[in-house]
Every structure is written in structure tokens, then in C-alpha cells.
Amino acid sequence: MEQKIIKIMKKLLFSQRTNFISLLLFLLPGILITNASPSLTTGNSVAMYTPYTKISVPPGESINFAIDLINNSSEIQKVDISVSGLPHNWNYVLKAGGWKVSQIAVLPGGKQTLSLLVDVPLQVNKGSYHFKVEAKGYDSLPITVTVSEQGTFKTEFTAMQSNLQGATTSNFSYETQIKNLTADNQNYSLNASAPPGWVVTFNVDYKQVSSVSIDANHAKGVKINVVPPLETKGGLYKILINAGTTSTSANLELETVITGSYNMVLTTPTGLLSDNISEGEEKKINLLVKNTGTAEFKDIKLNSSAPVNWEVTFDPKVVEKLEPGESAQVVATIKVAKKTIAGDYVTRFEANGNGINTKAEFRISVKTPLFVGWLGIMIILIVFLGVFYLFRKYGRR
């Protein structure tokens, strides 16, 4: 009986020990988590956030990061802020509320916004650059800036359209831009190398200039006006433009395609623009069409404006081709209407080709035929003799 009681007591003790161990194992993780939570909360009581943790920019760009400093704790937190890992020739400024800051206080459950301005230098290699914004003892915010192209330290001179075409009477205007990719403000002197007789002028902000000032990492538009001489022959002409200072310069080559100028003169071989004619007769007048331009004329048509009932014809009616400096002879035949009263009359000749119109006024004096004059004299004499005869015969009565 006593042995049975002893066995029962052993079982009870073993069962209680097992339950105690099980209870201890069940409660131990909670105890560990509870003990660990104070240190975890302390490490994340202040956090930093920005939506732009990796961006791509060209050389010379200024980047403005907006960074939120968030206080997750129930106490005011004073946080020291710094930037680490930034390349040595990159500049940055940390601001909050318009002031440069290195420490900032955040209310419980609140946030403060910092402004991090980073200047990427002009002379920088293409690639990715990594740095961190540190909230000392709380958080670290990694940021990556990728420079999209190889940086330079120079001046860029470009044109929207470097090749223009037109006649010598055209005004060629080139829209260009000078970009100062240096770290200093520059005053560029503007110069042009053009063919003799060509006029090149520079305009900035609607004013004619010979130089232009541009701030560092800024650009300015320059309008270049080119005027060729009227006698310039057709062809391709190149103009070299230089924008330079004592420390930097850039060249720009412009191309002007001259199609030639259209100009012609209508006259006579002697330059005399008058003649005589009798009424009812024809008169052949030699005209001269001169190409005084630099472009070829095609299909020059001849026209006239003459008094009523007069007839004017041309041979040839059309000058098919006329090279620069050449002349073509045209014969104009004028037929004066019968019974035209004697006097001075004007006939206008016109030559039209390639949109150019030139005129010549020809003065024609219409004379009475010689036999009509003699006939008049004879009639006067007959009348005089008749009167004399009648006076002799009947005068004494």
C-alpha cells in the first residue's frame, strides 16, 4: 500500500515539473521580445524619407532633395544631420526653414522637412555616385546620383539651322546659342570670318552687339544676320563664327547657299529711246535685254503697251535663256495707225521673267508724210493764184 502511494506521488511530481517546463518555454519568447523591444524602438524612433533615392542628371545640374525627418517616438528628438560619401568636388547645402542647419528638433509624432541642395560639377565623369544623409544615432538615407554624360569644362556654340539658302537680295538670319559650361562668368567677344564684301552682325535681346556676357553654366541666344553683296554669284559660301574669351572659346561654321540674284535691264543698243515715224507706216526698233543679275533667266516674255490702233510685234516673242552678264537682241516692229495726228506718243515695252519685271518707255514722234506737205503747199499756191486772178479781173470794176 505504501509503495502505491509513493508511485502516485512520483507521477504527480513528474507531471508538475513537465507542466512548469512547458509553461516556461511558452513564456520565454514573450519575455525575450519584451526585453528586446526597448532597444528596437530606440533605434527607429527617428526615420528619414525622400521619394527620390536614385536620379539621373547631366553635368553641371543642381539637385534639390526634399527629405522628411520623422519622429516616431513620444518625446522631442534633437537630431544631428550630416552628409557623407559625397565626392570631394561636389558642393552641398542642408537647409530647413530657409537657414543652413546641422541639427534639428522634431516634435513627438511630427516631422520636419529638410532641403538638400547638391551641385554636380561640370567637369565630372559619366557614372553613378553614392552618398548618405545621416541622422546621427538614428537613421541613414542612401542616395544615388547617376551622371548621364561625360562632363566638360568648355563653351558650346550651336545653331538651330546652320545652312540657309536664298538669293543675294535675301537676309540670312541664323538662330544660335552660346552655352557657358565653365565655372566662371564669361564675356564672349563675337567675330566672323566671311567672304569679302559680306556683312555679318550679331543681335542679343533685339540689340546689335559685338560681345555677350553669360553666367557660369548658363546659355544665351544670339541672332546672326548675314547680308551678301548683290553681285555675289550662286554657290555655297562658308562663314566661321568665333565666340571667345581669354580662357575659353568655341567656333561655329555657317553655310549660305546663294541661288543668285535676278535683275535685268531693257534698253536699246545705243541707249536712245526715241524715234520718228510717219502715220500709217511701220518702224523696226532694236531692243536689248541685259541680265545684270547673278542668276540665269529662263523664258523672258516681251509685252507692250501702245496707243490705240497701233500694232506692236516682237521677234523673238520669248527669250528662252539668258546667262548672267549676257544680252539678247529683240526686234520690235511698230505699225502706226492711219490718220494718226502728228505729235509725240509713248510706247512702253516690258520684259518679264523669273518674277522680275523691267520696263522701257519709247517716245515716238509721228510726222506728216512729205507729199502731204507739198500737196498743202500746192493747194495754198493755187488758192493764192486764184485770188490774185480774181482781184486782177474784177478789181478795177
How would you describe what is shown here?
The protein has helices at about 1-45, 370-395, and strands at about 45-50, 55, 60-70, 75-85, 90-95, 100, 105, 110-120, 125-135, 140-145, 155-160, 165, 170-180, 185-195, 200-205, 205-210, 210-215, 220-225, 235-245, 250-260, 265, 275-280, 280-290, 295-305, 310-315, 320, 325-335, 345-355, 355-365. It contains 2 helices and 29 strands. The chain is rod-shaped and about 160 Å long. It is α+β, with helices and mostly antiparallel strands. It folds into 3 domains: about 45-145, ntegrin, alpha v. Chain A, domain 3 (Immunoglobulin-like, Sandwich); about 155-260, Immunoglobulins (Immunoglobulin-like); about 265-370, Sandwich (Immunoglobulin-like).
Layout: helices, strands, pairs:
Elements: H1 2-43, E1 46-49, E2 54-57, E3 62-71, E4 77-84, E5 91-96, E6 99-100, E7 103-106, E8 111-119, E9 127-135, E10 139-147, E11 154-159, E12 163-166, E13 172-181, E14 186-193, E15 199-204, E16 207-209, E17 211-214, E18 218-227, E19 235-244, E20 249-258, E21 264-267, E22 274-278, E23 282-291, E24 297-305, E25 311-315, E26 318-322, E27 327-335, E28 343-353, E29 356-367, H2 370-394
